[in-house]
Amino acid sequence: MADRVAIILAAGISKRMNTKLAKVLHEVCGRPMLWYVLDACRGVGVDKIYVVVGYSAEHVEERFKDANDVVWVTQHEQKGTANAVMCCREYLQDFDGQTLILCGDGPLIRTETLRTLIDKGESEKPAATLATAVLDDPAGYGRIIRDAYGNLQGIVEHSDCTDEQLKIREVNPSYYLFDNKPLFEALEKIEPDNVKGEYYLTDALALMIASGHKVVAVTAVRPEEAMGVNSRAELSEAGKIMQDRIQGRLMENGVTIVDPPNTWIDARAEIGQDTVIEPFTYIHGEVKIGGNCRVGPFAFLRSGTVLGDDVVLGVFTEVKNSSLADGVRARHHSYLGDATVGKDVNVGAGSITANYDGKKINRTEIGDACYIGSGSVLIAPLTLEAGTHINAGAVVSQDSINGLCKDVDKKE
User: Fold this and answer.
1) Of 236, 1, 8, whose CA–CA distance to 98 is shortest?
2) Is residue 8 a contact partner of residue 51, using CB atoms and an 8 Å limit?
3) Catalytic annotation, residues
């Protein structure tokens, strides 16, 4: 496979989002938009990614500080997509390979589409390859211009289109694969000859064609993937599409989701075979659920939750940053926060771990086969030995356990 890097354009300010947060940090199903684009690049074997940042660059870099395959490049002035790519010149001017160029605000990108783009580039050996989409409503997108034989002639941005060009439904969703050296040669020649006075990356394609380079396009992008996020409404729509993908993948892997439209599952969640997710369940963050569990309805699982096999969490039960071993039952109105719960523990209705003392969060350790009576309050830090029986309505602290409080009856 040819050497290949990626450039992701993530410097823009989104006025329509009406936000102080960098646009690419807005989340879709628990992950920043930029995360999905990075993940798609890694999925096709790219191991060096140049991310062009501008507005709120320090916050973007901080969010992805553990991404060792990312090089951060600053675009100090937003002068268009070609200018953004030119900011990477010091890193790539001598690179003799392929450069994948994508937008950081396109979270619905799929690895499969990038593979199709790359396969097209490798089979036909052009100087540039782009993946296009055909939309019922192409408003706002650059139009693909072809000759009578179907050969690509160029791309015209929506604001520069003639009335006739506006009728074209094949559009440019900004999925590019370039041979790197012809790319930077063309970038040097671009002039801001357009309505906005910006340097367009699409002009590089026209310059390549004019100089005799082969440029091809493959219609490989699904309409949903073409959607960039430029408003809160589009962010919400992208979330719905992503949620359908997440739940569809889980169901293919053997998870029952009783009512998908009324269930929300984070992109980071892992759920085992034959687990049933009841309606109005909300799973947020890095959550792992074993096999043959039943969760919900109206359950709330927060980041750091790990469930073993055959765990039942019922109506209005919340779990946060806790590990529940096989066979745990917490069926009604319970809260388990910052707890380690052993096997076959029964947590009665309305029982909670009081994990915050006003200054710090403390943990609760519950041994195997404990019984926690309804309405109990377990005050952390607390350790319950295996087989401990807590009477209903008890308020239990470590001192009360050590002092054999009458509300605590240990099994022999």
Assistant:
1) 1
2) yes
3) 332
Along the 412 residues of the chain, how does pLDDT read in single tens digits? 458 999 999 998 878 899 999 999 999 999 999 999 999 999 999 999 999 999 999 999 999 999 999 999 999 988 889 999 999 999 998 899 999 999 999 999 999 999 999 999 999 999 999 999 999 999 888 899 998 888 888 888 888 899 999 999 999 999 999 999 999 999 999 988 766 778 889 889 989 999 999 999 999 999 999 998 999 999 999 999 999 999 999 999 999 999 999 999 999 999 999 999 999 999 999 999 999 999 999 999 999 999 999 999 999 999 999 999 999 999 999 999 999 999 999 999 999 999 999 999 999 999 999 999 999 999 999 999 999 999 999 999 999 887 644 444 544 4
Tell me whether residue 168 is in a domain: yes
Indicate which CATH number applies to the domain containing 9: 3.90.550.10
Please check whether residue 281 lies inside any domain of the structure. Answer: yes
Angle, CA of 197, 199 and 200, to the nearest 5°: 110
Q: Is residue 234 part of a domain?
A: no
Phi and psi at 408, nearest 5°, equal -115, 125
Q: 327: domain CATH number?
A: 2.160.10.10
